[in-house]
Structure prediction request, 106 residues.
Amino acid sequence: MISDWTSLWVKRQAIFDFALQHRMPVFYPWKEYVEAGGLMSYGLNLVDQYRRSADYVDKILRGANPGELPIQLPTKFELVISLKIAKKIGLDIPAHVLAQAAEVIE
Prediction:
């Protein structure tokens, strides 16, 4: 069974095309969607999460009991904006929003 997130990634180009055709501002869960052609994303940093997961794997391989490891929530969230897509759909992004973005794609 394919998860909803996997399905969203697989169909991303069709979603981008539809949103662009209808001039719809669409928010995505991760910056990878913006890098692939989406407008904006706000979500956890996947690379940071993978690194933190690797730390857990290392601790378990060194003998730590997985049941005793603390639960960790994401700590690094990022706003990513594509000005190129914003321009194509006729959307002006306010300067104060751009100033808060971790990354602006032009």
